C-alpha cells in the first residue's frame, strides 16, 4: 500500500497545482498563436481504458485555466494524423498523443514538431522518429513481469500447459509486455515447469533468455490478438480445438489485457477438458474486476490512470511554464533515446481488489456484485 498512497498523494498535489496555477499559450513555443494549450489524441473510444483516460484528463483540468481538446483516432492512423493537424491549426503548444500505430504516428508528430510544438508520447511509444520530446508511461516491462510472475507463483507441479497471447505487433508496448513476461516465464519453460501449448516460434526459442526484437516479433506474429477481444476469442478456440489432452487440464494463460483476457477466459471455461486455468490481464477494467470477483479472471495489472494523467499533464504544465519536466528513464524508439517518466503498476487479484480499487476511490463498491 505504500506505493499506492504515495501515488495518490502525488495525484492530489498535481491536481491542486493545476487548479490554482493559470497559464495561457502566450509566450510559449507552439504553432499558430491560438488559444489551445494542450491537444490530446487518444487511439480509440472502443476500449474502456481510453474512455477512462478521457475522463481523467477532463477531471485533471476541470478547475484550471488551461485549455485542452481531446480527439480520438478510432484505430486509424489517417484519422490520427488528421486529428493532429486539426489541433495544430488551433495553435496548440503541447501535444499529448497515445498512438494507434507507433511507427505510423511518426509523420503526425513530425508535423507538430515542425510547428515548434512539444510532443509527449503517452502510454505507447512512438517509434522510428526524432520528433518526440518526452514519453509518459507505465513501466511496460514491469507489467509483463508481473503477469509472468503471477503465472509462476500459481503453477502447480511441472509440465503445466502454457498458452501465450500478445497485443498488437503495431504497438511497441506489446513487445515490452511480452518481453517482461518472457523474462520471468522463460526459466520456468526451460526447466519444465511450463510446456508451451500454442506457439511453435516460442517453443523454438524456449532455451533463449534474451530475445531480439525480431525474435519477439516472430512469437507475436503467431499469438497476437491485435488487442481485439473477438480475435482473441477466435485464436483461443483454434488453439483449444487443435490441442491434445496433454495440453489441457490445469493450464496457465498469458493474456495481454483485460478485454482479451475475458474473451479467452470464456473460451477456456467452456472446454470440458480444462479443469482449471490461471489467466492474466491488465488495465483493471470494470468488467474484469467483476470477473476477478467471480473467479473467472485470475488477476489484472492495475495501471492507475489518474497517476499517468497527472504525470502527463504535469509535464505539459512544466513545458508551458518554461520549465524542464522531471524524467526517470529513457526508452530507445529506434531513432533516439526518449526521456521518459515511468509510473508504477500494482497486481490486483481477489485478495486485494477491495483495498486497491475500492478503498482507494478508483471504483465504487456499488458498481460490483459479490464484493466482500
TrEMBL record:
GO terms for cellular component: outer membrane-bounded periplasmic space. Residues 38-323 form the Periplasmic binding protein domain. Its main location: other. PROSITE patterns: PROKAR_LIPOPROTEIN. The keyword DNA repair does not apply. CDD domains: PBP1_ChvE (cd19994). This is Sugar ABC transporter substrate-binding protein.
Amino acid at each position: 500500500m505504500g506505493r499506492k498512497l504515495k501515488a495518490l498523494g502525488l495525484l492530489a498535489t498535481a491536481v491542486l497545482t493545476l487548479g490554482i496555477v493559470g497559464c495561457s499559450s502566450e509566450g510559449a513555443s507552439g504553432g499558430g498563436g491560438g488559444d489551445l494549450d494542450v491537444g490530446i489524441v487518444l487511439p480509440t473510444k472502443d476500449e474502456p481504458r481510453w474512455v477512462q483516460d478521457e475522463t481523467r484528463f477532463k477531471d485533471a483540468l476541470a478547475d484550471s485555466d488551461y485549455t485542452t481538446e481531446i480527439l480520438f483516432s478510432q484505430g486509424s492512423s489517417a484519422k490520427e494524423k488528421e486529428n493532429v493537424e486539426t489541433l495544430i491549426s488551433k495553435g496548440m503548444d503541447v501535444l499529448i498523443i497515445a498512438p494507434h500505430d507507433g511507427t505510423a504516428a511518426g509523420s503526425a508528430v513530425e508535423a507538430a514538431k515542425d510547428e515548434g510544438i512539444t510532443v509527449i508520447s503517452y502510454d505507447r511509444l512512438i517509434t522510428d522518429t526524432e520528433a518526440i520530446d518526452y514519453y509518459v508511461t507505465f513501466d511496460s516491462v514491469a507489467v509483463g513481469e508481473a503477469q509472468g510472475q503471477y503465472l509462476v507463483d500459481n503453477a502447480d507441479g511441472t509440465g503445466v500447459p502454457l498458452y501465450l497471447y500478445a497485443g498488437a505487433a503495431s504497438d511497441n508496448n506489446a513487445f515490452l509486455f511480452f518481453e517482461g513476461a518472457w523474462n520471468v516465464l522463460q526459466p520456468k519453460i526451460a526447466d519444465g515447469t511450463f510446456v508451451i501449448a500454442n506457439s511453435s516460434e516460442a517453443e523454438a526459442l524456449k532455451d533463449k533468455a534474451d530475445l531480439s526484437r525480431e525474435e519477439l516479433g516472430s512469437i507475436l506474429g503467431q499469438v497476437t490478438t491485435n488487442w481485439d477481444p473477438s480475435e482473441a476469442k477466435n485464436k483461443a478456440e483454434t488453439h483449444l480445438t487443435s490441442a491434445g489432452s496433454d495440453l489441457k487440464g490445469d493450464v496457465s494463460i498469458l493474456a495481454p489485457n483485460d478485454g482479451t483476457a475475458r474473451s479467452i477466459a470464456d473460451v477456456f471455461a467452456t472446454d470440458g477438458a480444462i479443469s482449471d486455468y490461471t489467466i492474466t490481464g491488465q488495465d483493471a477494467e470494470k468488467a474484469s474486476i467483476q470477473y476477478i470477483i467471480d473467479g473467472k479472471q485470475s488477476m489484472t495489472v492495475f495501471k492507475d490512470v489518474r497517476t499517468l494523467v497527472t504525470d502527463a499533464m504535469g509535464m505539459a504544465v512544466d513545458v508551458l511554464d518554461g520549465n524542464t519536466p522531471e524524467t526517470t528513464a529513457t526508452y530507445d524508439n529506434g531513432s533516439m533515446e526518449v526521456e521518459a517518466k515511468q509510473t508504477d503498476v500494482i497486481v490486483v487479484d481477489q485478495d486485494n481488489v477491495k483495498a486497491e480499487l475500492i478503498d482507494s476511490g478508483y471504483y465504487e463498491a456499488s458498481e460490483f456484485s459479490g464484493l466482500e
